[in-house]
Hints:
- The complex is a heterotetramer, with two copies of chain A and two copies of chain C.
- By secondary structure, chain A is an alpha+beta fold.
- Chain A has a single domain (2-75), classed as Beta-grasp domain (Ubiquitin-like (UB roll)).
- Helix content of chain A is 22%, strand content 28%.
- Chain A contains two helices and five strands.
- Chain A has helices at 9-15, 30-40, and strands at residues 2-7, 19-23, 52-55, 58-60, 71-75.
- The relative contact order of chain A is 0.30.
- By secondary structure, chain C is an alpha+beta fold.
- Chain C has one domain (7-123): Molybdopterin biosynthesis MoaE subunit (Aldehyde Oxidoreductase, domain 3), CATH 3.90.1170.40.
- Chain C has helices at 16-23, 56-73, 104-121, and strands spanning 7-10, 30-37, 41-42, 45-54, 76-84, 86-89, 93-101, 124-130, 135-137.
- In chain C, the strands form two sheets. In chain C, strands 3, 4, 6, 8 and 9 form a five-stranded antiparallel beta sheet that branches. In chain C, strands 1-5-7-2 form a four-stranded mixed beta sheet, with helices on both faces.
- Chains C and D meet through helix 1, strand 2 and helix 3 of C and helix 1, strand 2 and helix 3 of D.
- Strand 2 (30-37) of chain C pairs antiparallel with strand 2 (30-37) of chain D, so a sheet runs across the interface.
Amino acid sequence: MKVRVLYFAAARDLASVESERVPLKERASVGDLAGEIVRLHPSLKALERSVRFSVNFEVAERDAPLRDGDEVGVLPPVAGG
Amino acid sequence: MKVRVLYFAAARDLASVESERVPLKERASVGDLAGEIVRLHPSLKALERSVRFSVNFEVAERDAPLRDGDEVGVLPPVAGG
Amino acid sequence: MKVKKTAMITRRPIDPSKVLAAAADDAAGGAVLFVGTIRKKSDGKRVRGLSYEVYREMAERKMGDIEAEARRRWPVIGIAMSHRYGELEVGEVSVAVAVSCEHRADAFEACRYSIDAIKGTLPMWKKERFADGTETWVKGAPIEG
Amino acid sequence: MKVKKTAMITRRPIDPSKVLAAAADDAAGGAVLFVGTIRKKSDGKRVRGLSYEVYREMAERKMGDIEAEARRRWPVIGIAMSHRYGELEVGEVSVAVAVSCEHRADAFEACRYSIDAIKGTLPMWKKERFADGTETWVKGAPIEG
């Protein structure tokens, strides 16, 4: 299966990509994707502990399952307002 | 001595006067004035317990002393905003 | 520097955005504005409008006291308030208070304090005029000293 | 009835008085507006401006969630919020939230809740551009789930 990954702010700067499709094994979790994107873009390691993920526009924990076609946001600490 | 008394809102309606000079004996207090205005305008008795007084633009208790020329406001319960 | 009149008792319509602008400052990260308007109903009766009466000189001094106390309690950068008197219709603004601070928690608290103090300590009275032609002084609370 | 768009992520300048108007209602006695502006200093360094980035589709949904939660917790009559993104200069408005309620205590609390939720749960990031030419992503907190 594949998920669509969007990188924001510092994560985008480090990955040098805005969005990409990432292939994953069946029944992969958010945590599995987290490992995979650091493998694809080693510089993301700097954000590994502070980043959170959204799955289809909702914040998801690392053990949340992913499905083919999901949209995953890679979200550094936020500072709106 | 004399003080200037200003009546507001329901107090003005009941006294049928906006302002007047009220003669008082020397060393009269706010409480003495309260008695005097009810004597002058008996209908003010209806507000006797809810009204408060200002002396020279500051809220004053009944035992506060008055001096010649003071400006006294007769203030029904307030409801601004 | 532009001089802004920051505390006003006025017979003219209040523009809340001007009150906000009077409190705004480049050094502030957040501003909180409270706007009070004439509601169309009171105790279930349809309101046509309100007449506000004020002891003007005392009210202006009280506004000065409120500003001073807000600045004493919170790190206020800008503060502005306007209260209208005279005849107001439903939907019109009767009072507006704006406070700006570096941090928003302070701005919320100082604005809340200020409008509470305006309601409790300003010598103002209002008479409701109902659609059925009757009118009555709004029952308030004894003015706070 | 005029249809008002009450939750917006926008690249255009925000007019706080329009946000306030979008939340206003004849049935409400009080409205509270929060306005966030770009400060001229951050940690003592002179700021020239900010670049805001947003995950727009998620942010719009989060705004909907915030409105729903505010309405669930307080008797909100009207609520409106706008957050800007793109390039902003010092003194410009980055965010505005307005809430109207019958009673002012509710309006203060619901507005405070909403701006806190905007800051904590909207996927937005800002990069400060300093007068000395440097720029840096503002250190934030992990987005709340």
